[in-house]
Amino acid sequence: MSLSKCDRAVGVESDGSLRNQRQSDAEAKSPTEGLCTPTPQDEQRPVLAASKEDRFTATEEIELPGWASRKICTPDHTTLESRRRGVLFEDLSVHGLGSAVRVQPTVLSTLCYPFIQLFNVLRGKGDDSVQQTILYGFNGVLFPGEMLLVLGRPGSGCSTFLKALCGRYDGLSLDELSKIQYKGISLKKVVAEFRGEVVYNAEADNHFPHLTVGETLSFAAHARTPRNQVGAASRRDYAQSAVNVTMNLFGLSHLYDSKVGDDYVRGVSGGERKRVSIAEMVLSRACFGAWDNSTRGLDAVTALEFVRALRQAADLTGSCHAVAAYQASEPIYNTFDHVIVLYEGREVFFGPSQRAVEYFEEMGWERPARQTSADFLAAVTDPGERQSHVGMEDRVPRHAAEFEAYWKQSPDHAALQALVQRYAREHPLDSTEEARFAGLKHEEQAEHARPSSPYLLSLGLQIRLCLTRAFQRTRNDIASIIATAIVQIVVAVIIGSLFYAIPDNSEGMGQRATVLFLAVLTNALIAMLEINVLFSQRPIVEKQTAFAFVHPFTEALAGIILDLPIKLFRCLLAGVILYFMSGLRREASHFFIYILFQLTAVVTMSGMFRTLASMTRAVGEAMALAGIMIMCIAVYTGFTLPQFDMHPWFAWIRWVNPIFYAYEGIVANEFHDRLFECNDFIPNYLPSVRFNSFTCSSIGSIAGELLVSGDRYIWEGYEYSYKHIWRNFAIMIAFTVFFHVVHLVLTEYAPKSQSAAEVLVFRQGNVPKVSHRDLELGEQQFSGKEGRNLHSKIDPFPKQKDILSWRGLNYEIPVKGGHKRLLEDVNGWVKPGTLTALMGVSGAGKTTLLDVLAQRASVGVITGEVLVNGNALDPSFCRKTAYVPQQDLHLETATVREALQFSAALRRPRSVPTEEKNAFVEDVIQMLGMEEFAEAVIGHPGAGLNGEQRKLLSIGVELAAKPQLLIFLDEPTSGLDAHSSWAICAFMKKLADHGQAVLATIHQPSANLFEQFDRLLLLGKGGRTLYFGDVGHRARTLLDYVEKNGGRRCGLAENPAEYIIEVIGADAHGQTQTIDWVNVWNQSPEHQQVVKELDYLASLASGTSTTANLAHERDEFAMPIWNQCRRVIKRDFQQYYRQPDYIMSKFALGIVCGLFIGFSFWKSDNSRQGFQNTLFSLFLLCTIFSTMVNQIMPKFVTQRSLYELRERPSKAYSWKVFLLSQFLVELPWQILLGICTWASFYFSVYGGNQSPQRQGLVLLFVVEFFIFASSFAQFVVASLPSAALGSMLAVFMFLLSLLFNGIMQPPSALPHFWRFMNHVSPLTYYVSGISATALHDRPIQCSDRELSLFDPPVGQTCGHYLAQFLVTADGQLYNPDSSQDCQYCAYRSADQYLAIRDIAWDDRWRNFGIFWVYIVFNVIGAIVLYYVFRVLPHSRKTRVHIGRS
């Protein structure tokens, strides 16, 4: 491919003279002339498609660069030249600390770790971490408007290099001798003051999903709009103009009002989202941009458009771009000015892209025919792929250090060094350029912006901009606002109805205190939901902070401000409902004080949870701490545990508990200056007694008074006082300010997310030996880069005879407003011994067709035929085929060998001995070259297998099953470098040559890789067939078909795969299409031949396939159910043991909460309040349920995803086995957790004086509760799509159970329409059983504040006066012989209090059994729900698949 004049002009010449001349010429040019003048070749670069309304005419397209430059780039020539920045790096070295090896932790090793560390310290043995060098002394220079292609195999340091150029080290360290400057400005200064000029864009596209494309780009434009914009346009007009131009430039105008979306929110496509990222980066007006593997997953044309878009941005703005790409076609390669080649962290070439291939050929390496330049350069760094010229075998370098030494001795390196030194001399770090650039930035900054700030906007403008965006996000996601409000309203209605119309007498005083406690607690704890929201926003905010759009704290402040009226509205709505339903004080002033305290409490708790989120690095950590905080808040509010009963070691918690102050204020507001009529007198002789000879049974009563003072009630019952109300309000305001200020400070200054270096993890006892010296010398251990053994181990695969064919396949899915057809009349077959490629543009339906053929589509309507040898598919079809999905899903805790053995054990026939299965697994390991990491733990990226190793494992898992029919592969080369892609395709070809049938979808294949395929099925837009037939030698058959039907001729140097997508698939990329290739195919002789062949294949039907002749061959599963159970349960128990984080978080939660409850209610006395404290200690143990659910549900959903996406479609084992294993694997840990929790609180609260029977039964109830919690979590989430939804539903259902269990409100006091809930609530039986067991026959000795005091009539003793009353009364008189101050206690034993709540000692074993019934119900319910919602629809769809139309 020839280079345009513009492309050649921006190259770096070896001697640097031409470069110097070009710079001099550029300085004399006008702004428009400063950009490369488009040549005819440049005009052929396709402008990304825009909407019809905004598309330019042909004349406008030619002038687009200069026009866009004037609109969005720079206002004048001086600014243009000042903003054009290159980058120079000298001796760039990056280091990091890491262990020589990493061992997989287990529960046992985690428990022993503190002791091992202590032992090592005593022995004087330090940490085994050593300093590792990741990048070794890189040198290079990039001039304004140039693009650099970064090439290297995975693990060579490409990402680290790009991050280092942008000042992002993510826990690594830059060598002290390293120098990076940007045209006279040091890296340190750039990061501090010009951060927005040097930006790094990771592979992931992070955007607010509910914002539209226009809103997303408008924010970027406003954030980086200069004050000295072009002409007299306002800031708003300039930003809007920039957005319109940029969206036209990148073909996004038709998506202006479309949501960006993400994996969970429906929005634009992945390719369009990538364009949004590009446009956002252009609008940032950055001088240098680094792109990390951004072409992954894109088809060839889309990837080329992406790179050309960067080329346009560089030409328009003079910006520089460095792009790392594992696979780059020749057109993509030629778009770049320079290329840098990395080899195990060493720079082995840096120079013009036109020179790179020639350099390595001169070194002695041979470039195979039709190999792309990028593939050749990457292959040179791969010992398994590179080929030396004949006679040069002993002269070429072999190791990375030798390549580096050769490079440093080459003339190209000398020329580069001269250019680097000249650049350094011309742009010294003498602050001159820094001052000039700072002045330019200050001119662009808004008024009141700090000159040294990297941001262009002042704080006021930033806050206003963030407020606008926060409003847009809220408006676009109104459904979540409504959902939260509905939850809050429903909770308010339930609580209000539970305490409906509380009587205005002494009987209702306790109910008022209870309903206020529930109101303030539930209303405030809804703020905990904000933790998940903040963590979802964090990557987006961090990216935009790096882009210097806005301060992180301004985004946080905007969220706080915008949430305030929403919180006020929700609080007011819920408050009105609960306030008037429960019959609280009907006075306007007190109502508004109630609302004021509720709103303040909500805002304060919001600040507390936001602060917690900003302090933690992981959402799981934040939620665990939030669970502990909730318990602290609930206990130390003063309601469940009054202040006078608080022990000194924890009593201080109430002073830092905002809800304590809110609750006291609301209670005081309700009871102050109120007198409640007594409805229960002691003795009940009224009206025959007078003076002080009677008293009310309520707390706070005075002898002889018919009314009870509310102020005395709250003082004697809770030590609350009305005089504290405004003090409390001021303290809450102080808490609000404090928490929000801390949150804003932490948001701004807390360390950002860091990525760990990749390292393999091994099981204990299977760690390969490696010395520290090897690491210090830079040797790359455990890389998994050994060559594949593609020849010697193919023999174990049997030759196949079965033919899979499909005819007239149509597939429709329901969408809003109707149906969408994804496949239309697709025909084809895969025969044994052929390798068939499935290609098409993005969105053509390649993966969809693969899913339909493999019986994996689960929604929509499928019509047509899928046959094997002309027969309908039998139940064993799925397990006899292999399907390698694009997503590499594996069990993280298993090793490579264990994953392969698991697949072989369950998917190969039962007639094959286990020894033979394992022997074949070893063959697969050798075939794929995985010996080096066969004992490595799969883990997750960063701490486990890398992308290449994961892809090999995905293939190996399917090969281990020894498929009898067909191998499906979906994007097997996605994310891999050229050599790995070639190795995998060559391996597939070997399988096909041995008689295996293989069908694979593929993106961006090189010419050599494309030649490996025998046949091609090409899909166009809408899933319509464009071609199905042979590829031919050098793709001649395919090219002849295209060319004879009107397509242009394919150039000799062109890649046939890219040519086909470009010519036939042009309509999918917004290009004019003059030939209807669908119609061409349907009318072609080739299509008629396909139809005839399908008729012949259908005639082969014989009633059975050749692979279904043996016993059990037609069974759905290869192994019997008992064998499935044994294998799966063993694997799951092994997984839990190897995940100490999950297990330890369980035990930390249970033990910490148990100790907290135990020490909070430490050995409560036998007073009435002491008894209630012990009862509430049992009740509060239930509050850890919500946190426990948040631990279990994500685990279950992760396991379910692995099963449903990989193991169920392959028929490895039954869904019944999956559910059974999930129940059983939790069981022993929940039992052990229950024992630990019981031991943590039981003896602290009850002591050791109770009988062994009681101690054992309480233990059984606690264990039963933990088992119930796990089964309930799995029951709720079994059929739901996400853990978040399941958690919300489970917590809501648990809240209902908690409210109606009889503790908060006795069953007799419940409204008639709610009494059934007391019998339905599972916690009724748990609380009743454990309370009766622990508290039966416990004597009650009233304390002085609990006694009812009154005087007997003159001349009578207390005993004589109360003789008639005591006959029927349940209480006891303490001083019958006294003639004054009669001391009456309303209770004798705990059984009297429990009886009011229908709790009886005799029912303890009944309650224990009924609670087990609920556990069984959870298990059965989970099975039923899973079957109805997740098995039955799939089974029905499977029947549709195998049927004939």
TrEMBL record:
The keyword Nucleotide-binding applies. GO terms for cellular component: membrane. SUPFAM superfamilies: P-loop containing nucleoside triphosphate hydrolases. It is a multi-pass membrane protein. Belongs to the ABC transporter superfamily. ABCG family. PDR (TC 3.A.1.205) subfamily. CDD domains: ABCG_PDR_domain1 (cd03233), ABCG_PDR_domain2 (cd03232). Residues 1-46 are annotated as: Disordered. Coiled coil: none annotated. The chain crosses the membrane at residues 478-502, 514-536, 556-579, 591-610, 622-641, 729-746, 1142-1162, 1174-1193, 1227-1245, 1257-1277, 1283-1304, 1411-1429. Its main location: membrane. Keywords: ATP-binding, Membrane, Nucleotide-binding, Transmembrane, Transmembrane helix, Transport. InterPro entries: AAA+_ATPase, ABC2_TM, ABC_trans_N, ABC_transporter-like_ATP-bd, ABC_transporter-like_CS, ABCG_PDR_1, ABCG_PDR_2, P-loop_NTPase. This is CDR ABC transporter. The lineage of its organism: Eukaryota, Fungi, Dikarya, Ascomycota, Pezizomycotina. GO terms for molecular function: ABC-type transporter activity; ATP binding; ATP hydrolysis activity. Residues 116-369, 804-1046 form the ABC transporter domain. It is found in: Membrane. Pfam families: ABC2_membrane, ABC_tran, ABC_trans_N, PDR_CDR. Residues 1-10 have a biased composition (Basic and acidic residues).
